[in-house]
Amino acid sequence: MGGTRSWWGWGHVEDAVGGAELDTLLRRVRAALPDAELTGHRPPPVASLGLPPSRAVVPDALAPLCSTEPGDRAAHARGKAFRDVVRNLHGDLASVPDLVARPRHERDVVAVLEWCTGRDYAVIPYGGGSSVVGGVEPRFDGHPAVVTLDLERLDRVVEVDTISRAARVQAGVLGPHLEDQLRPHGLTLRHFPQSFAFSTLGGWLATRAGGHYATVLTHIDELTESLRVVTPSGISASRRLPGSGAGPSPDRLFLGSEGTLGVITEAWMRVRPRPRWKAAASVHFETWPAAVAATRDVAQSGLDPANCRLLDAGEAFLNADVAVGGGVLVLGFESADHPVDAPLRRAVELARAHGGTVPAGRGRSAGRDGGDAIPDEAGAGAERAWRAAFLRMPYQRDALARHGMIVETFETACTWDRFDALHHAITEAATGALRAVAGAGVVTCRFTHVYPDGPAPYYGVYAPGRWGSTVAQWDEIKAAVSEAIVAHGGTITHHHAVGRDHRPWYDRQRPDPFAAALTAAKSALDPAGILNPGVLLPAR
Amino acid sequence: MGGTRSWWGWGHVEDAVGGAELDTLLRRVRAALPDAELTGHRPPPVASLGLPPSRAVVPDALAPLCSTEPGDRAAHARGKAFRDVVRNLHGDLASVPDLVARPRHERDVVAVLEWCTGRDYAVIPYGGGSSVVGGVEPRFDGHPAVVTLDLERLDRVVEVDTISRAARVQAGVLGPHLEDQLRPHGLTLRHFPQSFAFSTLGGWLATRAGGHYATVLTHIDELTESLRVVTPSGISASRRLPGSGAGPSPDRLFLGSEGTLGVITEAWMRVRPRPRWKAAASVHFETWPAAVAATRDVAQSGLDPANCRLLDAGEAFLNADVAVGGGVLVLGFESADHPVDAPLRRAVELARAHGGTVPAGRGRSAGRDGGDAIPDEAGAGAERAWRAAFLRMPYQRDALARHGMIVETFETACTWDRFDALHHAITEAATGALRAVAGAGVVTCRFTHVYPDGPAPYYGVYAPGRWGSTVAQWDEIKAAVSEAIVAHGGTITHHHAVGRDHRPWYDRQRPDPFAAALTAAKSALDPAGILNPGVLLPAR
């Protein structure tokens, strides 16, 4: 997994899309969107960015943790959303952290918070930097300096309890390195967000990340046994408990707090044996309503598949190489304890009752499996193709961004009774905005997670942009779809967090008394107001 | 389900233990504890209690909601713990609410909070009054008056969304009346705490009640889609969402807040079709360690049984009429969608691998079932006997309390790696305290819920007391076991809540920064500090 991290875009420089892959990608875009200009642009060299000098005054004791190297500051200036990448490509780094601090242990985190509280420096906790909502960007400059606190050195699995199937893990560990450390114990966290390779446990916890499981244990919240959080007012360490009813859950206050209440330094996580049995199938539908109805039946069946991903026709065609009228439902079951053919059969039966068909040869498979670090459901053709594309998507997004394309995603969740109206409103808003800002474009939909009471739909947008204007174009599209989401009963985010970008809509969906309670809690924990200003709550 | 509610003890007066049932009960006690005195005592008449006059000044507009009737005030003076019942039996009502207000709709709740905020009256939100932790008791009298806010008139299912399988329910509805209203829709909440008949949805939500499911969806939290809460600072209404990652969960702040942050007036709850397939089995073990190991294997198998209750030998003998050396594991699966014989077979196989045996004739059954309002797993003999005893237990507890017995329960949860030491410490502390205060006694254990990372053990204590001293005797036992729980990594409560009685130990297990955050949140929502003073946080 080694490589050179890109300062401006996703992942490793060495893995960027090029050569034949780029040719194919551009050819496909030209076929779908003949008006796209598709001129290639290069990222500017870091030396040309002209970053302002660091304003931070560093105490000697903390100097060994701190970097003011321009490439480091530039790489930590923002997350990895489309609008982040494009602004980087244009050399637009108006706002960068004054320095990057890399604590070696929890005491360093305490020391950095003390230092910054004393000097009123803003502190931005930073995991893998994969935020797509402005969660790590020093956008509101009301402080004399901004320190990005990068936890990458806190990357160890400290303790494994094989009896209770839990592991004590430092927050700065990246996904693959976490799995590498669990593998010798035969265990896995089995939390695989799309950002897996370049996001950290602490980031997943702070943003309530969505992971591998399509049903029941969908968010990282459910895999969390206890948390350790350094706040400016002291360390909060919750008790390792499988369940408790003692007052409101302390962990649930910090899960989703996005670095505004404290810095998560470690957690006891619920882990599990690697799956030995898997069974998967893809079911094709002629119409989207039939596909949705079938997915709802499966979601409400109590079968609780590990995978239950519905791709609409556009998503199936673009990313799974399947031509189908209505959609493809990818089902997967897995277990470390018992065969899972029977629940798969029943789920397929439910889907067939809505007119679903399982294509011969590539539809279904089952068997034993050693389990993989990277998710790879056994067998099902569409699922395999889709998984491979899934992990390449951010790299391809960057390649298309360099060619003036608008390529971005957004997601929500709602109850089933509202889905048709919400989906219609989102699609209308997105296509309307695309026509207005880009003349044309494609909107695709998939369900990443489903619940008995509703789905979590995830949308992709592809449109030809005007180089130099694609951020403004995207912002217009995003505002339109966000209005539709909030007006039709969805959440502004099912698993991408709030950050700074979702604030206007988050503020409208959040109950006012809860906002008051959260503001008060923040004042108690972070009285100087230095932690991630502007995220979740207004910057001062 | 009709009857006259007892002012001093559990449930309906008409259902009190008497006649042959009482004779049998006392005979069994005499056999186990020959030194028990077992003289019967009667509850005092309400008229003899000499309650102080009500201090509350009621505005005319609210007068129709308010009762100062002595029986009403006495019945609302405390919950239904052993120590509550015994104090009632002794006519010890030192502290009673000044009046009971019964809002007819949410506006009334708002009006009562405004009135009480203006006059600095304490307000105790009250559902079914089944607290066993001093959660509804006006113990700390720092206010000019105490108003108990009984939500019994808010008892309707307002709306049912059969598409999303959710129902909008008023908080004051008792369990059976809730199920009665869902039944015509073919739906059920399937949340059956032992207090089911005399506890309310709002009480379950405010205390994070544990319910029917032994695994996964154990707490009411997981069945909650959204909440509506009247706080003195405004109404908090969360959005109906199947899942969301938008900041810390607003609902999770109110779930478990025990009436200290606001009054829950209604909730959208996740409901489900009544189960059609059930399968159950009882597995007997010669030793307790084998029974525990088998239960852990089942809990970690991913089979997720609806029932997975381990009874130790004492519990099996006393409450399920089964003589066994180590314990009985009662397993149950259920589904509205598919047969559940296969997962039961696998769970039994796992249990057999630890030496478990399924007794011929009464061990196992499976079949279709219409579903019942009162939980009633199909078939398994021990389970059936245990269920029947389960619902009678509070009545029998009262009968024994009237005969000078100490009869009470307590519960916790811990990770599997700590269970043996915790169980040993609890058993030692309990038997030691029993010897010290009562000379003898019996301690039994069962698991009410199990998780992949640990069990929730539940203990029963039976000992001969000295009439007039049984509260003090129990308090000594309770303090000893609570110390053992907190010292050995358990939670002071898995599903009985904190109230006023668990405060000393809750304060020790709760992270200090979280306490500061919760205190600040309360100040923001309830600036006058009138809501349930002394619960979760110190009374002023």
Automatic annotation (TrEMBL), chains A, B:
Gene3D superfamilies: 3.30.300.330, 3.30.465.10, 3.30.70.3450, Uridine Diphospho-n-acetylenolpyruvylglucosamine Reductase, domain 2 (3.30.43.10). PANTHER family: ALKYLDIHYDROXYACETONEPHOSPHATE SYNTHASE, PEROXISOMAL. The active site is at residue 458. Belongs to the FAD-binding oxidoreductase/transferase type 4 family. GO terms for molecular function: alkylglycerone-phosphate synthase activity; FAD binding; oxidoreductase activity. It comes from the Bacteria. The keyword ATP-binding does not apply. FAD binds at residues 125-131, 258-264. One of its GO terms (biological process) is lipid biosynthetic process. The record marks 309 as: Important for enzyme activity. It comes from Streptomyces chumphonensis. Its cofactor is FAD. Substrate binds at residue 397. Residues 355-377 are annotated as: Disordered. Signal peptide: none annotated. This is FAD-binding oxidoreductase. Residues 93-274 form the FAD-binding PCMH-type domain. Keywords: FAD, Flavoprotein, Oxidoreductase. InterPro entries: Alkyl-DHAP_Synthase (IPR025650), FAD-bd_oxidored_4_C (IPR004113), FAD-bd_PCMH (IPR016166), FAD-bd_PCMH-like_sf (IPR036318), FAD-bd_PCMH_sub1 (IPR016167), FAD-bd_PCMH_sub2 (IPR016169), FAD-linked_Oxase-like_C (IPR016164), Oxid_FAD_bind_N (IPR006094).
